[in-house]
Amino acid sequence: MKAIYLPCLIIVLLFQACTPGSDINSPNEPNIRPLMAYEREMVFANTRFAIDLFQQLAKSEETNQFFSPYSIHQALAMTMNGNEGEVLDEFIQLLRFEGLSKEEANKAAKELTEFLLKVDQRVKLSIANAIWYREGYQVKVPFVETSQQYYQAEVAPLDMLNPQSVNTINRWIENQTNGLIKDMLDVIPPNAVMYLVNAIYYKADWKYRFDPSKTKKEPFFTSPGQSVQVDMMHLDEAAGFRGYWTADFSYLEIPYSTGQYNMGILMGQGHNLDQITENLTFENLKLWREQATEFNAKLKMPKFKLRHKMDNMRGDLIEMGLERVFYYHPDNFTLLFSNPTDDLKISRVIHDAIIEVDEKGSEAAAATVVEVVEVVSFPPSGPQTIVIDKPFVFFIQEKHSGAILFMGKLGDPGLL
Predict the structure, then answer these.
(1) Residue 340 burial (CB count, 10 A)
(2) Are 220 and 302 in contact (CB under 8 A)?
(3) CA distances (Å), 412 to each of 7, 146, 283, 406, in order?
(4) CATH architecture for segment(s) 7-205+304-374
(5) Extended strands (E) in 27-108
(6) Beta partners for 56?
(7) How far is Cα of residue 153 from the mean position of the Cα atoms in its chain?
(8) Do residues 71 and 366 lie in contact, with contact meaning Cβ atoms separated by under 8 Å?
(9) Under a CB-based contact definition with an 8 Å cutoff, are residues 255 and 261 in contact?
(10) Which of 129, 226, 280, 319 could cross-link 151 (Cys pair, CB 3.0–4.6 Å)?
(11) Under a CB-based contact definition with an 8 Å cutoff, are residues 326 and 288 in contact?
């Protein structure tokens, strides 16, 4: 399947939430309460981060993408707590926490997650965090307490030199995503000292079900003159939706469950995804949500399944402003370990996400892994031996002035 319009779906998944184990006897009305000021700031931070990350990832010009900004935001927020000073400042800017102190951000993360897990008993959502650290290392008590209190994270040692330990992390991710995300982590490098992991699982039925017998192959136009055949679902009876239109694009909300959650769709009048992406800003999304009006309509939309894995988000996060922590430096993770360590850095931020949309509803899962490693240093056990056994450049210079008197290179002594 080719270009499916997913931008607003990605953002709306940030707010789609529930409790696991919901059933038909669950309450019809959502469990809504007023959000505290710091919780609203957290929502704004999540949304700004989601849109900024989407715009950054769009630069890759991949036709299809899918990710969970909530999962990535949670994993990096946990990681933030191991830092202070200028490194912490970069995390705060990246995560759009400028309006919050670190303590307020952690508290808001906890309470917003709790709100999402309780707000709709008919929608399934699980959000879980875990931290594994190198066996024999001592994690500072405040970091452990913060991770457990605000992120409900499991914190445990792991024998990272055992090749089988990778299965411990992968099994946890698989269990937390209802089996959708498997074998996410390929290998644990010998210098790994910590893994900070978030997993999220979501499942919800449409408010208005599509009849599977009416799904049929129809064209999906990737450009004015090109199309592909897709399984197109049909809602032949008019149902209630919310939408916002301009001369250039349309914004549609397709409700799930009780109608508290929805799939947002943003489409242009043409087929250019770049033009659609340009319209997706925090300010515009806020406007569309506020100005959307209710209307009745029939609906046709593609049935699809999409998986997208990013093996390392390092480059994208650096471009977004999180730079220092990806290079070895003594200022990194100063609040992480109480035992002495060599310089630390984040080596990889791995993200894997999957979504399936069918006649009944949507099922989605994602996981984010932050890998922290220690600089590899092997102290010599005796006198070092230096071997010059490959082509080299040489010169004769005067020490005090630095003047170079002679210069040359030796590429093949056999030709002398």
Answers:
(1) 5
(2) yes
(3) 57, 60, 64, 19
(4) 2-Layer Sandwich (3.30)
(5) none
(6) none
(7) 17
(8) yes
(9) yes
(10) 129
(11) no
Cα torsion 281, 285, 286, 287 to 10°: value is 100
d(CA 19, CA 149): 20
- Angle subtended at Cα 232 by Cα 229 and Cα 234, rounded to the nearest 5 degrees: 155
242 token code pair? 């919310």
Other Cβ atoms closer than 10 A to 180: 22
Residue-range domain boundaries for the chain: 7-205+304-374, 212-302
Reduced to 3 states (helix: H, G, I; strand: E, B; else coil), residue 176 is helix
Beta bridge partners of 394: 408
Per residue in 174-221, pLDDT (tens digit) is 999 999 999 999 999 999 999 999 999 998 899 999 999 999 998 888
> Which amino acid is located at 213 in the chain?
S
Neighbours of 30 (CB within 10 A): 17
* Measured distance CA(130)–CA(142) in Å, rounded: 16
- CATH 1.10.760.10 for domain 212-302, yes or no, is no
